[in-house]
């Protein structure tokens, strides 16, 4: 593997991790928003808080990881994407800021009215953020970001591929969150809540699945390079995504929630990887390849050192955190 | 005086045809960085204080200390959350506002950010473990979970400061025929200026956080709450702040040495040296109007002594520097003097406090001292912000000193950036209000005796948190 490709792969691992881990956090906002009145939704909202409270900040760092590797490893393409896609990026950023702040504020809010206000901001921004990040992915994947950064500020993200990308991002986030929340509810012994969430997760899963595969039609016209990749090199991943998604639905149906988490993660990771493999070897589709976009060699080597160090020092505590939060001991709903 | 600078900036805008997006991009960066930097300080310095408090609680079986550590952890959860998001804003803005810088030098300056990201990752992970570990982990293991946060805060700060030091003293690359080549990212990470700049910022962070937290308890004591809780809550951060405050003048002085060679224009602006005088006076206050220094109090020789470490070596004046390379002089000078002035005042105050304590007098019994202690936090914030204004504005018109002008780094969004600035101002104001409201209501409930805050998601029906 060439040096550039190794760095690009490390970058993309970050994209997948953010889509899966950050995605599950964002999706929780969808369930939070649709939980109903304060009285009716209290149980679910407490579950959401309990479920993502300890992990959301760590999951959020994947985004920073992606940005940093991108601007360090492939500086020109980063500047180009930022210039062209400035509007959806700013809107996503607004969502990120409002979501993080209001989630923290809600937990310590003084009154129900305050908590409700912060809650609505948290939940709404949890939906708009993945949408706009999805449109960014669509803009890049459909070849609308020229390397000089002069792409159209509107049509670069208001196009069929981007809009489908946005809706798919929202859907996959909600799907993941649904599966994880069902498992959390079961683990903390809230059977009634688990039943309620199960039905909604199944509905979200079905809708998202249909959406992902329906998107292939407009992408075929709108983003031919990506479409060719999806039908060619990335085809196994597309199939895998379908199978894993289907398996998740079956497992949810049969109330096998613990296993369903694995297939759900697999399905979403496969969808995202499908995009990456589908557009390979382009970094900005039809504009610049990974090899051509790469920065200085010494820097790429340094980045790989940083990534290697991350594997050694970040992954073990991260695994410890996840193990704690997904274990019985931390599932007591007294917190 | 500030107006004078804005006017200069505007006239320059007209005469030199600066990109229309430059001014709003600068203001945007100043707003988001200036806001974030305060929270970043809490990320750097607060964990160490929580650690000391928590450790004391466990070691001495002290419920007061343990209670304080628990509350501080909750406060740090709120501050860390908004610090994380405002930090994310900055990483977007690097590309959105300064595509010229990131496109050209992204691979030169990027590596320190990669390590900073790593450190931040660890900090976020251990924060999650620590916050939710109360009552769920053996106490001895639990308290150790703060330590990685204290360490990664320091590492992260170093990395960011390494980039800023590089912008002031660029190294680790060559420009050949307009192309950046021979990139040595490790030289950037370990550039020789980074350590001193980091030290200055690190100590400043302890001052800011130490005085701010201590000030909260000083206010409590002023209102007559003179229990062990308030005394301890005051003392631990105040000790940190005291050590930092007396160290800072030395660090700052060492950092400043050699500035005449590194960035003579910045030094001239700091010292308000219009012309080269031998020996140079120390100018207190004053502004530059039409090329003349007005309303300053000059102390002979002291300028040479402080800035040049010599009785008579002159501070090189602005007259030795081409007009187009001058930074906004008045803003730089006044910001620098604000920093130094407040720093000196705070250092003197802590020396007085500890001296009196040795002599058996407790200034905590004096209302005037408590009032001062309450003001020390905001003063430290102002000093830190002023320090940043001094070093950043003093670097202008360069974004990378002597290599790239800020005008060449900015994007071509023109006037639409004003909209962004307007929206950002609203969002940051809302976030500030939200944080203040939430932190105050936490404090109010704690005072009312609620050790554990109730889960706020429903009217009374839902069971309150029991063990948090």
UniProtKB/TrEMBL annotation, chain A:
Claim: Protein transport is one of the keywords in the record: no
TM segment ranges: 6-31, 78-105, 117-143, 163-185, 197-219, 234-252, 259-278, 298-322
Name of this chain's protein: Cytochrome d ubiquinol oxidase subunit II
Annotated family: Belongs to the cytochrome ubiquinol oxidase subunit 2 family.
Protein's cellular compartments: Cell membrane
Organism for this UniProt entry: Nocardioides humi
Major place of residence: membrane
Entry membrane topology: Multi-pass membrane protein
Record keywords, A-Z: Cell membrane, Membrane, Transmembrane, Transmembrane helix
InterPro entries: Cyt-d_oxidase_su2 (IPR003317)
UniProtKB/TrEMBL annotation, chain B:
TM segment ranges: 33-55, 75-98, 110-132, 144-167, 199-220, 232-251, 334-356, 368-390, 417-439
Major subcellular location class: membrane
Keyword terms of this UniProt record: Cell membrane, Electron transport, Heme, Iron, Membrane, Metal-binding, Transmembrane, Transmembrane helix, Transport
Domain of life the protein comes from: Bacteria
Family membership: Belongs to the cytochrome ubiquinol oxidase subunit 1 family.
Record carries keyword Heme: yes
Signal peptide extent: none
Membrane topology, from the record: Multi-pass membrane protein
Protein name (Swiss-Prot/TrEMBL): Cytochrome ubiquinol oxidase subunit I
Subcellular location: Cell membrane
